[in-house]
Write a structure and sequence with these properties.
By secondary structure, this protein is mostly helical. Helix content is 75%, strand content 0%. The chain is built from 16 helices and no strands. The protein has helices at residues 2-13, 17-26, 32-44, 48-60, 67-80, 83-95, 102-114, 118-127, 133-145, 149-160, 168-181, 184-197, 203-215, 219-228, 234-246, 250-262. α7 (102-114) runs parallel beside α9. The structure holds one RNA strand.
RNA sequence: UAAGGAAGCUA
């Protein structure tokens, strides 16, 4: 059962619901994890009707969803933009008096944020008793998804005055938002806060910095950060190369490309 | 280490 369930999970998350379902149908014994994984796969792929049909069969078989079940499905609703189903799951959790853990609450507010429902997301956020950095970051990310720059930064400032420390994921969300808005001053300010708080500069965060500076037209600054990062990866190169090209520095982009190929970096 | 919450370029 465990191995088959793991396979179903893998195929489902990989977008292959057909092989997942074949394994599912051939299993004599299924448990709640098996059902959870199969339905999650359908939601992940946007095959909501098949998912719902399976949920009905699951209930007929007297298999009850638990909190992880709902959590998994809510996450996939966010991924697939399945707002209505997400609302249904939210209602189900409330109706069955699930203790809405910080994990589930964060998944719910993230789902609403990804679906553009920032007000509902905020209501959940405000209703949370103990909010950790993931909850704050999910809320900021929700504002970022809806291009609510002001709200995102208001919340971030609120976060800075709390006892919770933002982490690199929080900062990445803010930097992406600054880049998309072309808000160079804000971006620099975020950069400064990062340094002040001593947040570790991993590849993802460094890429977000490069991207922010590049999108705001500060290519040289972006270049400096790129050069100064030891473990570069392909996304980081793409961010810089693309912006060099966008700013009419195609020759430099080309040179960078060949320099990186020499260093055994494989283009994607 | 069988399903569990928030992140980067490009699409």
């Amino acid at each position: 059962v465990n191995v088959c369930t793991a396979l179903i999970d893998m195929y489902g998350k990989g977008g292959s619901t057909v092989p997942a379902r074949q394994i599912f149908d051939r299993m004599a014994h299924k448990n709640v994890v098996t059902w959870t994984a199969m339905v999650a796969g359908y939601i992940h792929c946007g095959e909501l009707d098949r998912g719902l049909e399976l949920v009905h069969r699951m209930l007929e078989d007297n298999v009850s969803p638990n909190e992880i079940t709902i959590l998994s499905w809510v996450i996939e609703c966010g991924f697939a933009g399945a707002l209505e189903l997400g609302k249904l799951l939210h209602a189900y959790a409330l109706k069955n008096r699930f203790e809405v853990s910080p994990l589930l609450a964060t998944a719910l507010l993230d789902m609403y944020g990804k679906c553009g429902e920032v007000r509902i997301a905020r209501a959940i956020f405000d209703g949370m008793g103990r909010r950790d950095v993931a909850a704050w970051t999910a809320m900021i990310s929700g504002y970022a998804h809806s291009n609510c720059l002001l709200e995102a930064f208001k919340l971030f400032i609120h976060l800075l005055s709390s006892n919770i420390e933002p982490n690199s994921i929080t900062m990445v969300n803010l930097l992406v938002l600054c880049g998309e808005a072309g808000a160079l001053h804000l971006g620099k300010w975020v950069h400064g806060i990062m340094m002040k708080l001593g947040i570790e500069l991993d590849v993802v965060l460094a890429t977000a910095l490069v991207d922010m500076y590049a999108k705001c037209g500060e290519i040289d600054q972006a270049y400096q950060i790129f050069v100064g990062t030891r473990h570069k990866d392909i996304s980081m190169l793409n961010a810089l190369m693309g912006s060099l090209a966008m700013h009419g520095r195609g020759k430099q982009a080309w040179e960078l490309f060949h320099e990186m190929k020499k260093q055994k970096m494989t283009p994607n």
